[in-house]
Amino acid sequence: MTHRECGDCTVCCSVMAVTELRKASRRSCEHVGPEGCRIHPERPASCREFHCLWLRGAVAGDEALRPDALGVMFDYFVTRGTGEEHLIAFELWPGALDEPAARSLLEELARTHELRLSYRDGRWSSLASEPAP
Ligand code: SF4
Ligand code: SF4
Predict the structure, then answer these.
(1) What's the 3-state SS for 25-86?
(2) How big is the chain by its Cα radius of gyration, in Å?
(3) Burial zone of 58 (CB within 10 Å; 0-12 exposed, 13-18 middle, 19+ buried)
(4) Cα separation, 92 vs 76, whole angstroms
(5) Domain spans of the chain, in order of start
(6) Each residue of 73-84: pLDDT tens digit?
(7) Among 29, 62, 114, 120, which is least packed by CB within 10 angstroms?
């Protein structure tokens, strides 16, 4: 199994909603600082349980593809009822989703999953998975 660590990355602290803190998505957490989470030992369960796809090893690549380096963080969600898994790509700075490394990952993931793209400027779009030949 791929062993990965967050290291200096704190991207999810600025992207994900944290219900316990009433923090909305795409808002930086009040507890994040240059050294990471300032309340790390007491951080909410949502934070403890969150692992982006890179950290899970579900996205190929080394630390050059870690969200803070790539500019894109991948997460997934499951549609209630159908159990279908969708992936979501959060762009961290304008243009990051158009960079070659990100495009190549998007193309790879879109072979098997529907991908939703969340752009830094608030736009959304989708990449449908390709039907089997
Ligand atoms: S975005 Fe992923 S790698 Fe970065 S801190 Fe969050 S879980 Fe760790
Ligand atoms: S509480 Fe800590 S781990 Fe959770 S979002 Fe805020 S800074 Fe990140």
Answers:
(1) CCCCCCCEECCEECCHHHCCHHHHHCCCHHHHCCCCCCHHHCHHHHCEEEEEEECCCCCCEE
(2) 15
(3) middle
(4) 17
(5) 9-50, 55-133
(6) 999 988 888 888
(7) 62
Residues near 21 by Cβ (< 8 Å), separated by ≥ 6? 29, 30, 31, 44
Model confidence band, residue 130 (pLDDT cutoffs 50, 70, 90): low
The predicted model gives 42-59 an average pLDDT of: 96
Within 6 A (CB) of ligand 2 lie 13, 18, 29, 31-32, 37, 39, 43-44, 47
* pLDDT per residue as tens digits for the range 26-45: 999 999 999 999 999 999 99
Enumerate residues lining ligand 1, CB below 6 A. 6, 9-12, 51-52, 54-55, 66-67, 73
| Cα gap 110→125, rounded to integer Å | 13
Q: Which residue has the tokens 């870690």?
A: 66
What CA–CA distance (Å, rounded) separates 88 from 91? 10
Q: Residue 2: what pLDDT?
A: 67
